[in-house]
Amino acid sequence: MSAALHDLSVAEAGRRLRAGTLTATALAEAALARIAACNAHLHPFILVTKERALADAARADAELSAGTDRGPFHGIPYALKDIYDTAGIATTCHSRLRLGHIPKADSVVAARFAAAGGVLLGKLATHEFAIGGPSFDLPFPPARNPWNPDHFTGGSSSGSGAAIAARIVRVASGSDTGGSIRGPAAYCGTVGLKPTYGRVSRRGVFPLSYTLDHCGPLARSVEDTAIAMQLMAGHDPEDPGSADVPVPDYRAGLEAGVRGLRIGVPRAFFATAPALTDEAGAAIDRTLSLLRDAGAEVADITLPDQALFAVANRVILLAEGFAIHEPDFRTRLLDYGRKTVERLIPGAAITSADLVQAGRVRRMLADDINRALGSHDALLTACSLAPAPRLDQPADPRAAYSPLQLGAFNLTGHPAMSVPVGLAAAGLPLSVQLVGRPFDEAMLLRIGRAIERLSGWEDVPFPAISGEG
Amino acid sequence: MAEADEARLAREFDALMARAGLTIPEERRAELLIAFADLRTEIARLHEALPPTLEPAAVYRVERGR
Known about the structure:
The complex is a heterodimer.
Chain A: H1 10-19, H2 24-42, E1 45-48, H3 50-65, E2 77-81, H4 108-115, E3 119-124, H5 158-165, E4 171-176, H6 182-188, E5 191-194, E6 214-219, H7 222-232, E7 262-265, H8 267-271, H9 278-293, E8 297-300, H10 306-332, H11 338-344, H12 352-374, E9 378-382, H13 408-412, E10 416-423, E11 429-436, H14 441-454
Parallel strand pairs in A: 2-3, 7-8, 7-9
Antiparallel strand pairs in A: 1-3, 4-6, 5-6, 5-10, 9-11, 10-11
Helix pairs in contact in A: 2-3, 5-6, 7-14, 10-12
Chain B: H1 3-19, H2 26-43
């Protein structure tokens, strides 16, 4: 049976585009029709750039017909989290404070997607300034989880997760300061890759925390993620955090399997957490068994208490985030959503000693992770301790990302990836998190691809949206 | 938390907000106080003894031409 256009992988769509059996315009029109069918109840998009999409698609069709091939993303629909600047297109950060803000230039990532011949469908919902949400007191509604619209998508790349799970796009951009790529990926059943700090330029992306922010992709499959990373990765001399490290071919080793790889499991990170559900714990154990059966060496390791990583991350995030928003907090506090204020105002209470101590703990913990990765090719731990909670579940103002265990690797800068592994009894996705050596995203993609295949996730049908049979 | 501790924490919170030049609406003060109290408790962990030579992660490095 032929796959529907919205289920074609990036690679398969590319093959058909080049064979002349599919046009970028048909792909774009199908995606736009899908947005029209589901955006009113799932809200992944806060702005649909229909004219731009059709123009991008027409250009891709003309270029491919003329023999000009910009590579594997040529003619492929995508969307951007609305903290990524887009020249001439509103970039609001999902906030009343930025309504009507029209950037003059593209963010580096937006420019790279455009240069690769991608087809921009629009801008995606986020938490306000990538921290305050899910909220109903903002100018746009929060995105809803396509697996069950009563449930949370995770945040802050909430529209990115929802747009992929709703099968509108295969690839979307996200940003991750304490788990904002991996959390929505885990809750929405997509792959989410937070690259190494410095791997992807942050220039033109509204900051939340200068030393914790990472840009990266969410995508439907590991191969789609590898293709997106190939576009996004690379040195940017104008981003002070950008690293000048060669970018490998991310697809080259995808099918290499896991035989002989050493995978460390910091079991105490998640196994002792009260929020861990039986289903989430069993999904991790099942994944480890599959990897062991496929020839990987899997062993438990000991790392410092996960809570120490979390508090150091929180102190740095609050200090840096508060510094960014302090002038507007003084003059326009009530224009912010309630959750943004709840989460960032405690930054006013961070002392200089708190911040220095967090920096010292950060170095110590990064060294601990590096030591663990000296004798292991990757670590495997929890991503979420439970499936996505309900949207109306009362939020704990103290827990911006709980029960997600993600901020540790923003603190240390190591690459980390969320990979879906199955469905809970309630029909919501379960996932695991892989962590790698600095700049070794290729290893995470290789192991992630093995998990995708071994777990059977690649055969799990994604949820239907309204009107679908 | 003891009543005296709560009052001390509330005074500290008010002073910090004033120092930052922030005006917190009365109806939002209670929820922010909870977040503040939790943060102070969490942060205590960062102040456990560390080796004096352990430097922060973001140590300044001079590079040629930068």
